[in-house]
Amino acid sequence: xxxxxxxxxxxxxxxxxxxxxxxxxxxxxxxxxxxxxxxxxxxxxxxxxxxxxxxxxxxxxxxxxxxxxxxxxxxxxxxxxxxxxxxxxxxxxxxxxxxxxxxxxxxxxxxxxxxxxxxxxxxxxxxxxxxxxxxxxxxxxxxxxxxxxxxxxxxxxxxxxxxxxxxxxxxxxxxxxxxxxxxxxxxxxxxxxxxxxxxxxxxxxxxxxxxxxxxxxxxxxxxxxxxxxxxxxxxxxxxxxxxxxxxxxxxxxxxxxxxxxxxxxxxxxxxxxxxxxxxxxxxxxxxxxxxxxxxxxxxxxxxxxxxxxxxxxxxxxxxxxxxxxxxxxxxxxxxxxxxxxxxxxxxxxxxxxxxxxxxxxxxxxxxxxxxxxxxxxxxxxxxxxxxxxxxxxxxxxxxxxxxxxxxxxxxxxxxxxxxxxxxxxxxxxxxxxxxxxxxxxxxxxxxxxxxxxxxxxxxxxxxxxxxxxxxxxxxxxxxxxxxxxxxxxxxxxxxxxxxxxxxxxxxxxxxxxxxxxxxxxxxxxxxxxxxxxxxxxxxxxxxxxxxxxxxxxxxxxxxxxxxxxxxxxxxxxxxxxxxxxxxxxxxxxxxxxxxxxxxxxxxxxxxxxxxxxxxxxxxxxxxxxxxxx
Amino acid sequence: xxxxxxxxxxxxxxxxxxxxxxxxxxxxxxxxxxxxxxxxxxxxxxxxxxxxxxxxxxxxxxxxxxxxxxxxxxxxxxxxxxxxxxxxxxxxxxxxxxxxxxxxxxxxxxxxxxxxxxxxxxxxxxxxxxxxxxxxxxxxxxxxxxxxxxxxxxxxxxxxxxxxxxxxxxxxxxxxxxxxxxxxxxxxxxxxxxxxxxxxxxxxxxxxxxxxxxxxxxxxxxxxxxxxxxxxxxxxxxxxxxxxxxxxxxxxxxxxxxxxxxxxxxxxxxxxxxxxxxxxxxxxxxxxxxxxxxxxxxxxxxxxxxxxxxxxxxxxxxxxxxxxxxxxxxxxxxxxxxxxxxxxxxxxxxxxxxxxxxxxxxxxxxxxxxxxxxxxxxxxxxxxxxxxxxxxxxxxxxxxxxxxxxxxxxxxxxxxxxxxxxxxxxxxxxxxxxxxxxxxxxxxxxxxxxxxxxxxxxxxxxxxxxxxxxxxxxxxxxxxxxxxxxxxxxxxxxxxxxxxxx
Lengths: 629, 502
Known about the structure:
The complex is a heterodimer.
Chain A: E1 2-3, H1 7-24, H2 32-55, E2 64-74, E3 77-85, H3 87-110, H4 117-136, H5 140-158, H6 165-196, H7 201-207, H8 213-230, H9 239-242, H10 248-257, H11 262-269, H12 271-274, H13 278-299, H14 305-325, H15 328-358, H16 376-390, H17 396-409, H18 413-442, H19 459-480, H20 484-489, H21 505-528, H22 542-548, H23 553-592, H24 605-627
Parallel strand pairs in A: 1-2
Antiparallel strand pairs in A: 2-3
Helix pairs in contact in A: 1-2, 1-4, 2-3, 2-4, 3-4, 3-10, 3-15, 3-19, 4-5, 5-6, 6-8, 8-11, 8-13, 10-15, 11-14, 13-14, 13-18, 14-15, 14-17, 14-18, 15-16, 15-17, 15-19, 16-17, 16-18, 16-19, 17-18, 17-19, 17-21, 18-21
Chain B: H1 3-20, H2 26-49, E1 59-67, E2 72-78, H3 80-99, H4 111-130, H5 134-143, H6 145-155, H7 160-191, H8 199-202, H9 209-226, H10 235-242, H11 245-270, H12 272-298, H13 303-323, H14 327-358, H15 369-372, H16 374-387, H17 394-407, H18 411-436, H19 452-470, H20 473-489
Helix pairs in contact in B: 1-2, 1-4, 2-3, 2-4, 3-4, 3-11, 3-14, 3-19, 3-20, 4-5, 4-6, 4-11, 5-7, 6-7, 7-9, 7-10, 9-11, 9-12, 10-13, 11-12, 11-13, 11-14, 12-13, 12-18, 13-14, 13-17, 13-18, 14-16, 14-17, 14-19, 14-20, 16-18, 17-18, 17-19
């Protein structure tokens, strides 16, 4: 593989920004945000430079590596701090630094009134650096550092306003649930090392050929566990909704466009494992299918605009995971949806932030309404993102989502039909809840509180939204025209050849559009024809109630894990003192032959000491006796 | 040059200097104490530079007849493991002195006595890791109890006398068990070529497996109390709760390492067969310690007790790594000993500053410190991240090495132990949320942030934690040769990859 000397700058620039801002403290309040933005942008330009180099080389020469130093080396466990940039990671590098820089710019204005803006930018830069390490590490252990690094950044940013107890709790919840996923990654690395003797991507890829299916299945399932944690997939999805406690630019960058898609990256990166472990691959598809419905159903009931979008993110990542679980034909489409989603979902989150900015940080859509007149740019950019996520041609989602639906249908047998129907149904529900968001927020009558004075956001905020909106319109066409992305990524995946087509692309698109039309129509009838209540109605069906409570995910976790865990902790704390310490004290008493020897411990100390010496002497005699046998 | 003796003498010179200083001039006393520990640290680093890392023989060896008629020698020497532990001890000493500048006030005895005790203890900390004569080791092992007893009982808080006595009785009990084993070894050496306490000579003794098992237990129980391993741990939370933060750092960070160090140096070397016999039991105790310590930590209301229980969990990891009998496990455990010293120091010192400012060690008495004392809050958070072994922190490298090294031979133990990383997130983030986040609660509004002295004290600790997280090679290069050597001597080699290798 070719070597590079400049990969490290991708990470070093934002990392330096974070360190400078944190160490300089208040002294950097005036210029910290500018430095952070500039460094994020620099990293983006380094990424573009790398892309230009990569395009200029032939397929087999495109991946480059850079070894920085020997990190851990014990016996055969040798891990270099080493970076690798290939056709897959460059997609992520440009997404992370590109969208990341736009969100830095947006945040300059969005956070301008916050006294801790500098700290916010320090964390944003820290996130960019960690996320880049995640996608550039050349081994599972290097990835792991980035993996937990983004978890840390996410924790810090969710809890950015942690003076509010609920927000602090949300950040803790995200960290702990992610750690459960991280445990899966640990297990995967351990199994890989024990069976293959290596944890580098290239080493594992090579060894996978002569490793037992059982081991590969184990690794695959554990990687899936890791992916469910980071990407908020079933059953580790419950943290994402609460993560909306973070400032909205964070929701756009970390909890929509980049970090939560890391699970998709992990599975795609590990294609050589999943392709050889059908059971694990099937589980990936199942997790994706469950989550895409799970998120979509939650999305239908949320009145908080950010939580509605978060549910949508969960659902859309479900599509990506499902796509990645469909094997060689699905990986590229999963990545394509990941990239288009990065544009349209980040754009919509920034739009939501813009709305909140104009509405005194109100997030309840029932108190919005008619905002299109007051925020035309926000309405336009959000609307383009809306069309993209629905999959209306020629917007981005039309290309990427339809590809996943089509691949699902064509994956063969009953599995194909079930998956195809789930993805189609999901598209319809997506159309319903997104239309609901549009109607509640931008059309109809105003339902604002009296002190609300909606106004368009300043250009520093709408410019990034506009750029992302352009991406929402064009990225799907650009990536799929002439199979650009599929061909670009194809050297990474094993090609299994064409499969029999159950449904042709035209039929799939037709079906998908029909579902979307139904979803839009239902939402239209329900919310546009009738007056929307400013307070959420309580006389709703049991399904709505359950969906409002996130399908009872928190209740389940509390009843099954939290409460028993707390009870166990309480019992152990009591028994440690009463039973274990008590037993030790009891043994001491018996040995000393005096119940009061330890009771008056301070005064009786000399006596106890004497008794202990006696025990020692007994032990000594016993030992000597044994020796002389 | 007798480096090791020099290292041991330097703190004693400092303590003699302190003894002649006037009691009233507390500031001068502290300055001399700090200077002494800094000189020792400098000398240790100078010595470490000359260590030949690929040489598996003991280095800086010294040997003088002490009580010739009993075959007792004053014999010192270090391998990679002993070297890093001595380094850790001598770096921590000045940090502790500087960080706990005022913690000796209000004790039963004078400030001067406090620092004399600390310096005497430092001499013993070096000696206990450097001794290669079993008798000398035993004498220092027991003698160390005396300064610690007085440090806890004289300068601590709360039920300090009771805690000190509990610590002493536990330790004495273990010490006596070890003494019995040592005397038995001595007696046997007389029948097999002459009475000796020399570690290398004793490791060549022939003995029946029954004998070996009994003598092993004598040593192991002493070390398991010290480490401490479940269920012999109950002295530690009491001691940590009562001791001053600086004393706690030395107690948990350094003295407890004598337990895990002893398991390697004495149990594995002297009784290889017995070590293998007892490995299954010890591994189970280690895993229980990891999970049990973590759950108990989650349930604590007192900050100092919480930190003590996290250490019980961490010592479980160290013991697990030692008895996994793989090079990753061993090197991970050795590195863990070093890293834990700094990680725990950070928690105890910053926690100590929080406690002395607030006048309470109950976690729920704190609240919203991040907005009141941002630097102190950050330091506590970073210390916590180190304790939960976040990648990028030195503790991650050692913890992961232990886990991966255990997994290749004992996958079930490793899998259960890995659940500890989720519990670690809880036992750190719960106190972080309660103490640092949320609105500022009454009683915390006027707390002051870290002053310059405190910042200077904590900075090197944080630097070591982070630098070694990304670049642990300097330590691993010193530890690895010893690891391979010890594993090979026990007749083990790393399990080969099951899929037939690369």
